[in-house]
Every structure is written in structure tokens, then in C-alpha cells.
Specification:
Elements: E1 2-3, E2 6-7, H1 8-31, H2 43-49, H3 54-71, H4 76-98, H5 103-123, H6 125-153, H7 160-202, H8 214-226, H9 229-240
Length: 246
């Protein structure tokens, strides 16, 4: 049986691999905030002893199956994004729980991104340039927002962990897609903030605490990864013209 010209056994293998790596993500989510080494001689024991978060495991499994469906098995992008997806899930979880994006996690995304930019750049220099520009644009957008926020509000409006993460993600996605990530993450953040404001108004006296932005970046990156850029560009026109735009 084939789905999108790919044998169903490939999907099954991708799902099983996703489940295994999902538990590895749980292990990393414990170690990274504590600034402990991930790869040690006791790593297998550590992974087995880590309490499983079944939501993370299942989400990673489904995303791995989705990667196979979208990219097939001959596209180098499937390997690149198979490395990125666990990092995005980990950033989402850790930042939402602890309001930090560990430097080791960001550095890992950066290192893998540089490696793939080099490999793809060997065959096509334009791809390498696209990825390096993505790093500059991604970090630059959030750095400017952070600096402006510091000048006008006297405090950080964006954490430097978010700035570094956007720069690292730019190496994976390129400058066009990282701009889309920035826009979508702010839209998701705006919707979430409105929900919090409504909730705070209903529950009088409840104040809004610091909102971690890493989860929005992670969600936006996954959206850009799976949805073609031309579709993302078309959606706002469809919404604002009530479907009349062609």
C-alpha cells in the first residue's frame, strides 16, 4: 500500500522513530535546563528512567510521519527537518514551563543549521547564501525589537534567547521563510495575549505575567515548515477580501 507514492512501511518506521526520539526529547527537557550533558555513558539508562510525556511523544511521532508525507525520503530536507522538529518541541516545552531557551539548545540548532547550509551550499551556493541571510534577518528582526523596547519601555520586550533562536532557525528556513515565522509568531502571540486579557477581565484582579515567546516561534516554524510559503502569503488576502481574492 502506498500513500503519496511512499510505501506505508516507511510511514510506520517514521512513526516508530518519532516515538523513540519523543522520549529522547523528554530526557533533554530534564537535562537542558539543568545545564547537564546530554550524551553521557549513562544516556540509555537516563532515557529509560525519564518520566514519559506522552503528548510530546505522540506529537513528535505525528510530525515525523508528516515530514515523510511532505518531503518523501529522497529529499535532504527531510533529514534537516527531522533534526529541527525535536529541537522546536523542546524549545516550546522548556520556554513555556521555565521562560528560558537553553543556550545549548540554541547552539545545537545553529550547529546543525550551519552543517546543512554547508552541505547544500556545495551543490548550490545560492542556497547557502539564502540560509546565511536567514540567520542575519531572523536575529536582526528580533534584536531591533528588543533594542527599541529597551529604549521606549525601559525593559526587554523580547528575550535574547528568542533573538538567538530566530538567528539559528534562519539557517534552516532561509530569509523569506524566517520573515514569515516572525509575522506568524507575532500573530499567534497577539491572539494568545487577547485571550489572556479577556480571561484576566473575567477573573478580576488577576494580573498577566510574563509571556514566553519561544512557544510562538516554535509553532510558527512548524507552520512554515509544512505549509508552502505562497499559501501563507495568499491566506491574508483571502481573509481580508472574504475569499474574493484570486
Amino acid at each position: 500500500m502506498y500513500i503519496n507514492d511512499i510505501h506505508i512501511l516507511v510511514y510506520i518506521f517514521a512513526g516508530i522513530l518519532g516515538l523513540i526520539i519523543g522520549q529522547f526529547i523528554n530526557y533533554c527537557n530534564v537535562k537542558l535546563p539543568q545545564h547537564k550533558k546530554i550524551f553521557t555513558k549513562d544516556i540509555i539508562k537516563g532515557i529509560k528512567e525519564t518520566e514519559p510525556n506522552y503528548i510530546i511523544i505522540i506529537v513528535n511521532c505525528l510530525l515525523y510521519i508528516g515530514l515523510v508525507y511532505k518531503f518523501g525520503i529522497s529529499d535532504l530536507n527531510i533529514l534537516k527537518y527531522a533534526c529541527l522538529v525535536p529541537a522546536l518541541i523542546s524549545a516550546f516545552y522548556i520556554d513555556s514551563k521555565l521562560q528560558i531557551i537553553p543556550n545549548r539548545l540554541t547552539l545545537t540548532i545553529f550547529e546543525i543549521g550551519i552543517a546543512f547550509a554547508f552541505v547544500q551550499g556545495v551543490n548550490n551556493l545560492n542556497i547557502a547564501i539564502e540560509m546565511l541571510l536567514g540567520m542575519c534577518v531572523g536575529a536582526g528582526i528580533f534584536l531591533i525589537i528588543t533594542l527599541i523596547g529597551g529604549i521606549f519601555f525601559g525593559k526587554e520586550t523580547m528575550g535574547f534567547g528568542d533573538v538567538k533562536m530566530m538567528g539559528a532557525l534562519g539557517l534552516f528556513l532561509g530569509w523569506r521563510s524566517i520573515i514569515a515565522v516572525a509575522i506568524i509568531s507575532f500573530l499567534i502571540g497577539a491572539v494568545y495575549s487577547v485571550i489572556l486579557l479577556i480571561n484576566a477581565k473575567i477573573k478580576k484582579g488577576k494580573s498577566i505575567e510574563y509571556i514566553a515567546f519561544g512557544p510562538f516561534i516554535s509553532l510558527a516554524s512548524l507552520i512554515v515548515m509544512f505549509v508552502p510559503l505562497e499559501v501563507l502569503i495568499l491566506i491574508p488576502f483571502k481573509l481580508f477580501t472574504l475569499g474574493r481574492y484570486n
